[in-house]
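Now for our specimen.

. . .
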Amino acid sequence: MNKPQLTPIQQQFRDAMSSLSAAVNIITTNGRAGKCGLTATAVCSITDSPPTVMIAVNQNSKTNATLKENGVVAINILAKEHEETAKDFAGLTQLNIEERFRRHAWCEGAHQLPILQDSLANLQGEIIQTMEMGTHTLFFIELFEIRNRTGGAALAYFSRAFHAVGDEMR
């Protein structure tokens, strides 16, 4: 399968975005459309009144359609020790979705959402609005449950590689 050739501005955009460090997250869902998840850095805080976040998911991703049908989502914010988990859910290890969930320590949150047990934080919510933008769907999620872990360094993505950020004393 040949990838389409990028225009110069598209390549410049991708190169510039590789200079933007971002937290690494695993987005999960479960419901009538099934259970799935993916690794994402396109997660953004919107407001705390009510607590709302936005995620961007490629429209070609199977998870995109599943999120839309299920209507609920969990955002698992990864710690530095979750690099292999991030690679699994990014599809870099060629594991199928069942193997990805079996390989790591997951529990069930509200609405049977898959929650990574030792993530730095996990945000569970309902999709309240979507918007199509280019190749991606923007999902606006109103949170109904938040779990925070104390301590640990974060997993970030910068310059096309994973990095630990912060220290164990936070």
